[in-house]
Amino acid sequence: METTPPSAGRVNRNQTFKIVIITCVNTSTPEITSLDHHEYNNKLFKSLLPIYDYVELILIFIRPYLFKNISLPSHSSVIDIACGTGFMTSLFAQKGYIVTAVDLSPEMLNKAKDKLKKFTNITYYLGSASQLPFKDDEFDASSISFALHDMPYEMGADVLREMIRTTKSGGKIYIIDYNTSLPTFEMKIGHLLCSIWESIYYKDFLKRGIDAYLVDPSLKLVKSNKFLFSNVAYLEYVKT
Ligand SMILES: C[S@@+](CC[C@H](N)C(=O)[O-])C[C@H]1O[C@@H](n2cnc3c(N)ncnc32)[C@H](O)[C@@H]1O
Q1: Pocket test for ligand 1, best of 40, 81, 105 (most atoms within 8 A of CB)
Q2: Percentage of the chain surpassing pLDDT 90?
Q3: How far apart are CA 177 and CA 224, in angstroms?
Q4: What is the distance between the alpha carbons of residues 95 and 77, in angstroms, rounded to a whole number?
Q5: Residue 168 to residues 32, 100, 138: CA-CA distances in angstroms?
Q6: CA-based nearest residue to 238, from 211, 217, 207
Q7: Closest to 77 in 3D by CA, of 62, 64, 65, 93
Q8: Which atom of ligand 1 lies nearest, measured to the CA of 102?
Q9: What's the CA gap between 65 and 48, in Å, rounded?
């Protein structure tokens, strides 16, 4: 399935400034509907787009680990949820898997398409991952990287449910995000630094912790790891 997102418009500096200010000063749990989220999210990532891949450079340290550890049978189908500019999508595509990349932001999805145009094994879908147009058990694996903290908790829980629904029994579910376990000194510094650019949901995500999303009894943790002074968690589940 392929959608054609509208072409990117000019970045509105005023909006960018407002988003950065809201993000930096916000300390409370945001009350936000899914419609508000679409608007907020798309403005935020439109404004971050020019610098997004520089921020993502820190992730190159975990890439070799992911490349080695993510190992599926050849030609497996994988859905990369909230693919952004394609960090995980490219990894799956390089491994020869049949990839479906989903994102809510047309600008982020367009950037991924542009960066990954040499791959013929990726299909793109523009829309919210909280309601996916795919069948139950359609994919061999699913992944979400650095996105649960970028949406309201209820939406994140819906996204997880959709990932579980569309992944086959016995399939892998990969989750990469900020580590929310009891913070060490280095993690507290990390949280402080990240709150400079992170979305309005970030603090709520840290407060609730990743375990708040992982309540489905069909999920079995098979591998986990921590990176960047324990600031980043890698969680690998099997849907039983
Ligand atoms: C920080 S980026 C992460 C991108 C990429 N996965 C990575 O690791 O670099 C978060 C992404 O989540 C997307 N997003 C937020 N809410 C979403 C939703 N409900 N459905 C799909 N994508 C969503 C945003 O548009 C954005 O591209």
Answers
A1: 105
A2: 69
A3: 12
A4: 11
A5: 32, 15, 6
A6: 217
A7: 93
A8: 21
A9: 27
Q: For the segment 146-173, what is each residue's pLDDT rounded down to a tens digit?
A: 999 999 999 999 999 999 999 999 999 9
Q: 103 CA distance to ligand 1 centroid (A)? A: 6
**Domain 18-239 sits in which CATH superfamily?**
Vaccinia Virus protein VP39 (3.40.50.150)
Token pair of 67 as six digits: 């490349």
CB under 6 Å to ligand 1: residues? Answer: 41, 45, 56, 82-84, 87-88, 102-105, 108, 128-130, 145-147, 150-151, 155
With the most atoms of ligand 1 within 8 angstroms of its CB, the residue from 47, 60, 62, 103 to mutate is 103
Give the Cβ contact number of residue 101 at 10 Å: 27
Is there a contact between 28 and 57 (Cβ–Cβ < 8 Å)?
Answer: no
CA distance between the termini of the chain: 28
Gyration radius of the chain over CA positions: 17
pLDDT at residue 86 greater than cutoff 80: yes
Digit-coded pLDDT (tens) for 117-143: 999 999 999 999 999 999 999 999 999
Within 8 A by CB and 6+ apart from 91, the residues are 63, 66, 67, 70
Nearest 10 degrees: CA dihedral of 65, 169, 82, 66? 0
| Burial grade of 121 (CB within 10 A; 0-12, 13-18, 19 or more) | middle
C-beta separation of 198 from 206 below 8 A? no
d(CA 4, CA 75) in angstroms, rounded, equals 26
CA distance 138 to 168: 6
